[in-house]
Design goal:
heterotrimer, A mainly beta (about 140), B alpha/beta (about 400), C alpha/beta (about 350), A: mainly beta, OB fold (Dihydrolipoamide Acetyltransferase, E2P), 2 helices, 8 strands, B: alpha/beta, Peroxisomal Thiolase, Chain A, domain 1, two-stranded antiparallel sheet
Chain lengths: ~140, ~400, ~350
């Protein structure tokens, strides 16, 4: 992906900033500028997600997409954020056998890829299984 | 609106065609369909070509003009030629657009074709080109592949309905068995459930033999107003319905990832237009880009209840001789999946069947057939119903 | 005006490789290496982690621990010897990813292993002068050791972020004073475009580490008129376990004083994060009123000494995020092959 194309939504990728329709109270990530339900009656505002969510479905990619060959095997998942929005992401986890549908996850800041060894490095949000803090 | 008939058909061989270029294969298909119809170049009012990604597969855009030129329809005849794109549903769109041309009365004799030359680039470039049919900015950038997206559908289908890897494998086994009997098939090779389950894992739970291949191929149809069809052929096949529907580009935004709502909507519109229901369909060519896709499609097209697709397949009901034979051509899985051509090839197979010229894979008495062509992970679906009767 | 640490956050990747596993590959004697270096294992970044992602995670932890609004940050300085870009700041990535942009200044620091404390000092100046409200000073590295080189046994990954402010009520530790000692001593370097650093072997010891650490530490204690016994804890840059233990003894600090901050045996050398990690681990355990003495060392060469006094607020914020000990307790051990994959040491197609 070209630099300006990535950069345009960079802050949304870094910080899980999507949008929210004040008219129907639906949350969107990836961000949408038009509410698919209310359309022109919608009232869209920027919204920062808490980042808490759960795995809807997942797969372990063993034949990688171009540029991801060095990462195999990696976990691709659809995560549903607690506000209701769903997104496609990677789950960072050493033990692939532990990943399951409904697993609670939280966001982490990781490299998504790069434009080759001379190119820009793309950073963004992946998810990891939630592990309760000892002091909770 | 005028009734429309298919009066000529042609598929090239599907597969890795190292000796043939992009332009070689579409000329072969186009000319073949004109010969089949007995139509001369001077009679052609328009060309519609489904092509997903000439830009990425052969670094060629302006596909419509190229095809008109190399088909001998540009320099002297100046026939209008239009390229249609909806990822893997590009062929279905080309057929639909050609129907519009004839049905509206704007055009009389038109060619609806599809072509993809996928093996001139490395498999990683081909995969990247195909991945552009997903949401590049929010799925592709996370490392999503098409097998990966359909794997997430499969996992959910298994979770919700108890569908098994064996049942998915049965789709591949059946389609390879059908494709074995189709002379144009990329893979004329029978396989077993064990072959599928023992093949390498691409994206859990999908094995390589759950996936359709990368294919070169072209297919072409000639359409005419139904009223004049008999002038060209004794066995016209009539378009009874043409329907298309859209859904979210990203899988993650779907209402239910095990249901392709675009397929459901397109099928509903097509059945209404034809005044037919699923029980009236004798034969189906549907979009089995992955084995799970066929299971979802037979459910979403209404041939079986949601969640029953795996068992229905396992029971042999979609095989030749079953309740509703699906993908007698071998489907995308065995016959091959030159993405832009697939939607046209599906119609070619239905015409073969309705004409009664499908050889060993002939379904006796087939009268009404349905084609189902999907773009991406289900953002576009195109359904056509074809019949021997008007 | 007083300056102090208003919050701190650490990040350590979960992967570890044991010294004996690296020794197995190169045919070295693991036991003698391990006891000589006083390092048993080192942290390894995940395949998609680098100094920037580590800096972001540490900074986010600091903001959560402090319960602070990122909009108050007026400066982001990231110290590292493994910035992902040769030209293009890590600090703007961090600033954007913690939500601090755009009303701030940002720049990257490099001074071998003391770039993080140099960033702390720069923030102190801006905060004390009233130019900014809060400064974010980070030391983060995915340090490089050439395959088979002695550095490979210790070059680790991790980072620490300090939020530096001037409001007494917000501080978890007051910075009582700082003093630095710098000379041009080429004991360790990496030329532009080179993947791995070069080092002077034993030359990094006496003329490098020991001279600079002792001069800076003695200089600060002389300036403040303090003595080792007045401190509850001490932290020295820890390229291995041996150097800080020896320098502590030379300066008159006890093993007990350095114990909480001596994280290197289970972590390795996190370079720009090293001394800051020791301070963070010490803050994780310190009581209000405790005094902490710290000296960072950077090859090239220089040392930054600090004197901290812990406040009552430490007990309120300490456990809002993971402590250093909790991150050390949770390792995933990998072999050399996976280590090579994570560190991108395998030549790709």
């Amino acid at each position: 992906m070209s630099v300006p194309r990535f950069w345009r939504k960079q802050i949304q990728r870094y910080n899980l900033i999507g949008t929210h329709c004040r008219n129907c109270n639906e949350h969107f990530y990836p961000p949408r500028n038009m509410c698919p339900t209310c359309r022109r009656d919608g009232d869209i505002e920027s919204y920062k997600f808490t980042g808490n969510g759960e795995i809807v479905s997942f797969t372990v990619i063993r034949a990688a997409a171009e540029g991801f060959e060095h990462q195999t095997p990696y976990v691709l998942a659809i995560v549903k954020l607690d506000e209701g929005a769903r997104l496609t992401t990677q789950i960072v986890c050493n033990d692939l056998s532990q990943i399951h549908m409904g697993m609670r996850v939280r966001p982490v800041f990781r490299k998504l890829g790069d434009g080759g060894e001379k190119g820009m490095i793309y950073y963004g949000t992946k998810f990891v299984p939630v592990k309760p803090l000892k002091h909770d | 609106m005028r009734d429309v008939a298919i009066i000529g058909i042609k598929n090239t061989k599907f597969g890795e065609m190292w000796d043939n270029s992009f332009r070689d294969i579409f000329v072969e298909a186009g000319v073949g369909s004109l010969e089949d119809a007995g139509v001369s170049g001077e009679e052609i009012d328009g060309l519609y070509v489904g092509n997903m990604s000439g830009g990425q597969f052969v670094e060629q855009e302006h596909i419509g003009a190229l095809i008109a030129d190399y088909s001998g329809l540009a320099k002297n005849l100046h026939v209008p030629s239009t390229r249609l794109e909806a990822a893997c549903a590009s062929g279905g769109l080309a057929l639909r657009q050609a129907i519009f041309g004839v049905a509206s009365g704007y055009q009389d004799i038109v060619v609806a074709a599809g072509v993809e030359k996928m093996t001139d680039v490395s498999s990683s470039v081909a995969s990247a080109a195909l991945a552009a049919a997903s949401d590049r900015e929010w799925e592709g950038i996370m490392g999503a592949t098409f097998p990966g997206l359909y794997a997430m559908i499969a996992r959910m289908h298994m979770h919700m309905y108890g569908t098994t890897s064996e049942q998915m494998a049965e789709v591949a086994v059946k389609n390879h068995s059908n494709g074995f009997m189709n002379p144009i098939s990329q893979y004329r090779r029978k396989i077993t459930v064990e072959d599928v389950l023992n093949s390498i894992m691409v994206a859990d739970p999908l094995h390589i033999l759950d996936c359709s291949p990368i294919t070169d191929g072209a297919s072409s149809l000639v359409l005419a107003p139904a009223d004049v069809a008999h002038k060209y052929t004794d066995t016209p096949v009539y378009i009874r319905a043409s329907a298309q529907a859209s859904d979210t580009i990203s899988l993650h935004d779907r209402r239910d990832i095990t249901t392709l709502d675009a397929t459901v909507a397109a099928a509903k519109r097509a059945y209404e237009m034809a005044n037919l229901g699923p029980s009236d369909i004798d034969i189906v060519e549907l979009h089995d880009c992955f084995t799970i896709a066929e299971i979802c499609a037979i459910e979403d097209l209404g041939f079986v209840e949601k969640g029953e697709g795996g068992r229905f397949t396992e029971d042999g009901e979609t095989a030749i001789g079953g309740k509703i034979p699906v993908n007698t051509s071998g489907g995308l899985k065995s016959c091959g999946h030159p993405v832009g051509a697939t939607g046209i090839k599906q119609a070619v197979e239905i015409v073969h069947q309705l004409r009664g010229e499908a050889g060993k894979r002939q379904i006796q008495g087939a009268n009404v057939g349905l084609t189902h062509n999907v773009g991406g992970s289900g953002a576009t679906a195109v359904v056509h119903i074809l019949s021997r009767e008007r | 005006m007083n300056t102090g640490i208003v919050s701190y956050g650490a990040y350590i990747p979960r992967y570890r490789i044991k010294v004996e596993e690296i020794a197995r590959v190169w045919g070295d004697d693991a036991d003698s290496l391990s006891s000589g270096l006083m390092v048993h294992e080192k942290s390894v970044p995940d395949i998609d982690e680098d100094a920037a992602t580590i800096a972001v995670e540490a900074s986010r932890a600091a903001l959560i621990r402090g319960g602070l609004d990122a909009g108050r940050i007026g400066a982001v300085y990231t110290g590292s010897e493994s910035h992902p870009y040769a030209v293009k700041p890590t600090s703007t990535i961090v600033a954007e990813a913690v939500g601090a942009t755009p009303d701030l200044t940002a720049a990257d620091f490099e001074f071998a292993c003391k770039a993080g404390t140099a960033a702390v000092q720069a923030c102190m100046g801006l905060v004390a002068s009233g130019y900014i409200d809060l400064g974010l000073a980070i030391g983060a590295d995915v340090s490089q050791g050439a395959p088979g080189d002695a550095l490979e046994y210790t070059a680790a990954a991790g980072g620490v972020a300090f939020l530096i402010g001037s409001k007494d009520s917000e501080m978890v530790a007051v910075i009582e004073d700082t003093y630095s000692f710098s000379t041009d001593t080429p004991d360790f370097w990496r030329r532009e475009g080179m993947p791995y650093p070069e080092h002077g072997g034993r030359f990094t010891g006496e003329p490098g580490y020991f001279k600079h650490v002792t001069k800076a530490a003695e200089g600060l204690m002389k300036k403040m008129d303090t003595y080792p016994k007045e401190y509850d804890y001490a932290v020295f840059h820890q390229p291995n376990g041996k150097f800080p233990t020896r320098v502590a003894k030379m300066l008159g600090f006890s093993r007990e004083q350095i114990k909480p901050g001596l994280v290197v045996p289970r972590l390795g050398n996190t370079y720009s994060g090293s001394c800051l990690m020791g301070i963070a681990a010490t803050l994780d355990q310190a009581e209000p009123g405790d005094r902490i003495f710290a000296t960072a060392f950077g090859s090239g060469a220089g040392a930054d000494a600090f004197s901290f006094r812990v406040t009552d607020r430490i007990e309120e914020v300490r456990n809002r995020v993971q402590t250093v000990e909790e991150m050390l307790e949770d390792p995933i051990y990998i072999d050399y092959a996976i280590y090579a994959k994570h560190k991108d040491k395998l030549k790709r197609a």
